[in-house]
Design a protein that fits this description.
- By secondary structure, this protein is of the alpha/beta class.
- The protein has two domains: 3-221, 3-Layer(aba) Sandwich (Rossmann fold); 237-302, no CATH class.
- 36% of the residues lie in helices and 22% in strands.
- It has helices at 21-35, 52-59, 66-87, 104-110, 112-126, 141-154, 185-196, 199-213, and strands spanning 11-16, 39-46, 94-99, 130-134, 162-166, 179-181, 217-221, 243-249, 252-257, 263-265, 271-273, 282-287, 299-302.
- It has a seven-stranded mixed beta sheet with strand order 3-2-1-4-5-7-6, with helices on both faces.
- Helix 1 links the parallel strand 1 (11-16) and strand 2 (39-46).
- Helix 1 crosses helix 7 (185-196) and helix 3 runs antiparallel to helix 7.
- The protein is globular and about 55 Å long.
- The two termini are 28 Å apart.
Length: 303
C-alpha cells in the first residue's frame, strides 16, 4: 500500500502481542498514517514480561520470580512508549491490556468471553477503519492466538474494518503477503531508531531484530473466506496419544485429545473437522507436554 492510499480519514489500530511488534510489523505504516493526518492506536496485549534470557543477561540474575517479571514488564512498557514517540505517535496512542506474556492461547479457553470483549471494546472505542494484526501462521503462539482473537472479535461486526495481517516470526512466504510498503529513507531511519528503544530485546537479538525491521513491510488482506474444513496435518501414529486439537469459533473454544476430536477422514487420508456450522473456525494442533521451545510446530489453521 503506497503512502498515497492513506489519508487524514485513516484510523489505524495495530494489535501488538508484545512490545516491539508494533515497530517491527507496522513501524512504516504507523508513520505514513500519522504523516497523512490520520489517527493511530496500538493495542498492546502483553508487556512482554515472560522474557527470561534477556532479563537474566541484563540483570545478571538467574532466578526470575514474580517481582522480577513485573519489573521487566514495566521496563518493556516504557520501551514501547519511547519507540512510539520515535515514530511520531503520542503517548495516548498506546492502549495496554496487561495480559500475561506467553498465555494468550490459554486466555482463549480460560476467559474466552472476556478476551473477545476486550478486543471488541477497543475497536468500538477507537472506531478504526484499518486493523493490522499478527499473521495466523506466525510461529510465536501469542501471535497466532492474537490473530484468532481479532478474527473472532470482528465476526458479525458490520461494517467491519479492513483487516491486514503482518508476519514477524518464522519464514515468511512473500507471496502470502502481497501488500508491500517500501521504506522512504527517513521513515526507515525513524523505524530503526524506534527499534533501538527496545533495548531489552536488542541486547541478545540485535542482529535478528534489525533484520526483521529492515526493508519493506509486508501485509496480507484478511478476507474471511470460508475454508473446506480439511486439516493440513497427517500426524504420525506414534504422537497421536499426546496430540490435542484446539478449536475456536465465535461461540467458544474447546480443547480435546486428537482421538476425541470430531474428525472424519477422506479417501485420500486427509482429515476434516465436522459438526461446526458457524464461522470463522480456527484449529490448532499441539502436543500435550512441556517443552523449552516456545514456537509452534504446527500452529493455527483457518478451516
Amino acid at each position: 500500500m503506497p503512502s498515497s492510499s492513506v489519508s487524514a480519514q485513516t484510523r489505524l489500530l495495530v494489535v501488538a502481542p508484545h512490545p516491539d511488534d508494533e515497530t517491527i510489523g507496522c513501524g512504516l505504516l504507523l508513520q505514513q498514517v500519522l504523516a497523512a493526518g490520520g489517527a493511530v492506536c496500538v493495542l498492546l496485549m502483553t508487556d512482554g514480561d515472560n522474557n527470561p534470557w534477556p532479563q537474566r543477561y541484563m540483570e545478571r540474575r538467574f532466578i526470575i520470580d514474580a517481582a522480577a517479571r513485573k519489573r521487566w514488564g514495566i521496563r518493556r512498557r516504557d520501551e514501547v512508549m519511547r519507540a512510539l514517540a520515535q515514530l511520531g505517535a503520542a503517548a495516548s496512542a498506546l492502549h495496554p491490556l496487561g495480559w500475561q506474556d506467553m498465555e494468550i492461547t490459554a486466555r482463549l479457553g480460560d476467559d474466552f468471553v472476556g478476551s473477545v470483549a476486550a478486543l471488541r471494546a477497543a475497536v468500538q472505542t477507537f472506531q478504526p477503519n484499518l486493523i493490522c494484526c499478527p499473521a495466523l501462521r506466525d510461529s510465536h503462539p501469542d501471535h497466532g492466538a492474537a490473530h484468532v482473537l481479532c478474527r473472532l472479535a470482528l465476526a458479525g461486526m458490520h461494517p467491519a474494518p479492513t483487516l491486514w495481517a503482518y508476519p514477524v516470526h518464522g519464514a515468511a512466504d512473500t507471496s502470502a503477503y502481497p501488500l508491500s510498503i517500501d521504506p522512504i529513507p527517513e521513515q526507515q531511519e525513524r523505524k530503526l531508531q524506534a527499534l533501538a528503544e527496545h533495548r531489552t530485546q536488542m541486547a541478545l537479538s540485535g542482529k535478528r531484530m534489525h533484520r526483521l525491521a529492515s526493508g519493506a513491510e509486508c501485509y496480507a488482506v484478511v478476507d474471511g473466506a470460508v475454508g473446506s474444513g480439511k486439516l493440513p496435518w497427517r500426524p504420525p501414529m506414534s504422537l497421536r496419544r499426546w496430540l490435542r486439537l484446539l478449536v475456536a469459533t465465535p461461540s467458544g473454544v474447546r480443547d480435546g485429545s486428537w482421538g476425541d476430536a470430531p474428525l472424519d477422514r477422506d479417501a485420500d487420508g486427509a482429515y476434516r473437522l465436522r459438526g461446526v456450522s458457524e464461522g470463522p473456525v480456527f484449529v490448532k494442533l499441539h502436543l500435550d507436554w512441556p517443552s523449552p521451545w516456545i514456537f509452534d510446530h504446527w500452529g493455527w489453521q483457518a478451516v
